[in-house]
Amino acid sequence: MRSLLISTFLLSASTLFAQAYPTDGLAVHSALADFDRDGFPDMAIVNEPPDQSGAPQTVDVFFNNRSGGFGTFTSYAIPSSGPVIAVDVNGDGWPDLVIAPGLGTVSTVLLNNGDGTFRMGTPPTTKMTPISFVAGDFNKDGKVDLAAVEGKQIEILLNKGSGTFTEGQILALSGSSSLAVVRDFDNDGNLDIANAEGKALVWWGKGNGTFGTPTQVPAATKDGFSSLVGADFNNDGLLDLAMGVSHYNGCTNPENTCGTTTAYVYKNLGGRKFGLVSSYLIGDDLGGILYTADVNGDLNPDLVDLINGAGVSSGDVFYRAGNGNGTFGANTLITDTSSVDLSFRDLNLDSLQDLVLPSYFPEGEAIVIPGSGHKNCAGPGSASLAAKFCSPANNSTVSSPVLVTASGNSPIGVQRLEVWVDGKKVYEKFGDQLSKRISLTPGKHRVTVVAVDKYVGTASSVENVTVN
Q1: Which has the closest alpha carbon to 151: 168, 173, 136, 170?
Q2: Strand, coil or helix: 282
Q3: Contact (CB, 8 A) for 109 and 435
Q4: Per-residue three-class SS string for 384-442
Q5: Which stretches of 59-195 are DSSP H helices?
Q6: Is there a contact between 374 and 298 (Cβ–Cβ < 8 Å)?
Q7: What separation in angstroms does the CA of 443 have from each of 106, 131, 147, 398, 468?
Q8: Three-class SS of residue 311?
Q9: 8 Å CB contact between 370 and 25
Q10: 458-467 and 396-398: which strand pairing?
Q11: How far apart are CA 466 and CA 429, in angstroms?
Q12: What's the CA gap between 402 and 423, in Å, rounded?
């Protein structure tokens, strides 16, 4: 196995150390959710069998030891080994698993028994074989729907509410796509779908389970977009886009790298338009897949690049720290593994994003790298959707501007936090952490923090403050 190199920058402020957990096969994909709802997120690792071993494809469910580490796992034989998402498909409040076929021929739905163990559910019927799934409440009925990314098309699957789905609209693509992102890019309250298929498209949701004519994001290069992420990179309240492009330069250098990966950053201009504002080389080779997370704990989204399928560099993970204004810092190596997927989540409730890497070569393991950096507001437990204040204290007397620090959590995670003052929304922040100074007039005020679940529902926490 390639030596595991962990950046000392990430470990310098942490009380944890990187841990590797052996899996029941070659680990390829991961999903993080509080499957047993004990207040701490768990991890599901999808495995491929070793070559010609005859072993089944499996998913291993590891339970959090309530300190960000993991003990033994429960393994389930499944017919799939593709990308996995955690989502409550039958509306019982417990995270289930939806797994694309991968090496198999059919998708897998595993239904949570209400204790973190699973049983087989009914896989959705699709027109073509899904490469991956994304999810969201597309018709605003309180049930989480699926979108199956199927190469030449994206198929909308509307949830019946019992863990089964009705085939819906087909979004026909001119290129081939393997992934998509679900977000509300135009702030109209309806979920949209963005996908990369050489060019990048944003399909505008109508809120009834269907999508209108897409906007094509202007191309930045003749080489096509291969991956994309959405985040508010400049803190203006609008979700921007970053697209990854691989440039092949040949494999003639001593390091045996074959090219580069560039992240092209597009600002959301409003009016369903995006404009290119910057570009950055990221990683150390071509084949990079972009992710976004707050790696260094400064509450700004960073760009993360996983090199996938680029020879000796395959599995390298790099990031560029976001400055909060749409620009990014130096290209920094996080780890050198053998991974094709990664996930971020605060596993020990210290407010920092931890990294989970399914590592497939040679024996298979899940690598957990603890986050480090500035700690903001310790998260509430993930057993149920919750919002939490860290400051100011309830019924306190404070000076303006008032520093509001808060966090949110749920079994599957939260997408954003909102601050309301006296019944009016004054600020929102994408992610599960918030820190904002808010100007208030002298007198008494009612301050509310609202946590918006990743898929369905909200929770709030209320405090009263007096401004002197």
Answers
A1: 173
A2: coil
A3: no
A4: CCEEEEEECCCCEEECCCEEEEEEEECCCCEEEEEEEECCEEEEEEECCEEEEEECCCC
A5: none
A6: yes
A7: 61, 56, 49, 10, 7
A8: helix
A9: no
A10: parallel
A11: 24
A12: 17
> Where do the DSSP E strands lie in 79-164?
84-87, 96-99, 108-112, 118-120, 132-136, 145-149, 151-159
Residue closest to 37 by CA, chosen among 412, 376, 316: 412
User: What are φ and ψ of residue 278, in 5° steps?
Assistant: -165, 170
Going from the C-alpha of 390 to that of each of 46, 100, 382, 419, the distances in angstroms are 36, 39, 17, 13
Of 323, 329, 279, residue with least CA distance to 301: 323
279 confidence band (pLDDT: 50, 70, 90): very high
Encoding tokens for residue 292? Answer: 């976004």
| Dist CA 75 CA 27 (whole Å) | 12
Beta-carbon contacts of residue 395 (< 8 Å; ≥ 6 apart): 463, 464, 465, 466
Can you tell me the distance from the alpha carbon of 61 to that of 24, in angstroms, rounded to the nearest whole number?
10
| Separation of alpha carbons 248 and 390, rounded Å | 48
Note the pLDDT tens digit of each residue in 58-116. 999 999 999 999 988 999 999 999 999 999 999 999 999 999 999 888 999 999 999 99
Structure tokens at 171: 């979004």
Four-point Cα dihedral 30, 35, 38, 43, nearest 10: -10
Distance CA 417, CA 407 (A): 7
- Rounded Cα distance between 79 and 100, Å, is 9
Q: Cα–Cα distances in Å, from 351 out to 195, 411, 415? A: 30, 16, 15
Residues forming a β-bridge with 193? 182, 203
Listed in sequence order, the residues at least 6 apart from 222 whose beta carbon sits closer than 8 Å to its beta carbon are none
Could you tell me which residue, 250 or 422, shows the higher pLDDT? 422
The structure tokens listed for 99 are 């797994």
**Separation CA 122–CA 165 (nearest Å):** 9
Mean pLDDT estimate for the chain: 91
CA distance 93 to 116: 12
User: Token pair of 61, please?
Assistant: 């469910």
Digit-coded pLDDT (tens) for 412-441: 999 999 999 999 999 999 999 999 999 999
Give whole-number Cα distances, 266 to 199, 202, 250, in Å.
13, 13, 28
Q: What is the layout of strands, in order, in the sheet containing 165-177?
A: 132-136, 145-149, 151-159, 165-177
Q: How far apart are the first and last CA of the chain?
A: 62
pTM: 0.93
